[in-house]
Amino acid sequence: MNAPGTFTLGPGDGSARTGRLTTAHGEIETPVFMPVGTQGTVKSLCPTDLQDIKARIILGNTYHLYLRPGDELVAKLGGLHRFMGWDGPILTDSGGFQVFSLSGLRRITEEGVTFASHIDGSKHLFSPEKVVSIQRNLGSDIMMVLDECVPYGADRAYTEKSLGLTTRWARRCREAHPAGDRGQLMFGIVQGGFFKDLRAQSAEQIIEVGFDGYALGGLSVGESRAEMYDILGDAAPLLPAERPRYLMGVGAPRDLLAGMAAGIDMFDCVLPTRNARNGTLFTFQGKVNIKRAEYREDDSPLDPTCPCYACRTFSRAYLRHLYIAKELLSYRLNTLHNLTFFSIMMERARQAIREGRFAAYRAEMEALYPEGE
Ligand SMILES: Nc1nc(=O)c2cc3nc(NCCN4CCCCC4)[nH]c3cc2[nH]1
Ligand SMILES: [Zn+2]
After folding, report:
1. Do 237 and 287 belong together in one domain?
2. Could you name the active-site residues (predicted)?
3. 373 occurs within a structural domain
4. ipTM for the assembly
5. Which of 121, 132, 136, 337 is most exposed, with minimal Cβ within 10 Å?
6. 171: part of which helix (H) or strand (E)?
């Protein structure tokens, strides 16, 4: 197997491209969607389920695992792969975003970000060195640098000042983890808000530090689709073509397609798993809100084209019953299905890119999933 970090590009179609990324826990075909496993579990699923639905890489969160159960404990017990029983690739976000979206009382200084735990209010400092140490303890295959995800609507002065700090933090993360040490990769994160020149400035600085892959941060933070796509189209091509490009926190089917069209290789979003738990299901005939009364006596499978256990075994009526009755099995079956849908959608996208018919595939999927999630 190639060395971790090896990224080989395959056939492309316009700016969309296919590729293969080698990690210490296996190879990933790109473009790829990463199910979110925030606290060391993709909610309601076993690792064997993830294998069954052909999930290739999952996402964990430094912020959550540091606060509970603690990265030192996870390291003592053999690292996150062994702890959670998943031997495939794991990417961990650095905590920057979670601190801003979850914790109370936070202060940003040159040293790092101090915050109060959303669990018990205890005070903590995330410095670049600290978040690298946590991710090294967890044994992540891909570590993310500490960055400031600039809030939507931040003015130019704030955004420019913040990207400078994010660059200095990125440098400190790089210094804290020698390239490829222990097979653990590190991705940089580009900020710059919704100012194209600041995005270019941030990209240039982060690329100059040098990472195994590059992420676009600061998007999917409340902006309109048009605003996200405008920045995406401008910033994605600035990232080195020979390294993986990761669009953080995205997204809905049409956003994944737009991201792939712009040359993005990796995505993560809570949408399929979170929507599963609130009964919003993605099918190849469009969206199904399983709680609707129309499904009460519907003996047909959720999606007759879907190979997942839920669609092979149960009726919509049963899935609706489980949801209405608040049965735990509802979470598991709906999540199995939604992640299978995302997995199949990405596989078909990779195939369409290889065959030079990505634009047609994108149009076909957008017809199923018009504006809005
Ligand atoms: N380190 C780091 N930096 C970011 O700028 C960042 C930006 C992000 N933007 C999102 N958006 C998530 C949006 N999500 C959509 C579905 C419902 C819940 C929120 N996640 C992100 C994660 C991020 N992580
Ligand atoms: Zn299914």
Report:
1. no
2. 93 (proton acceptor), 268 (nucleophile)
3. no
4. 0.99
5. 121
6. helix 156-176
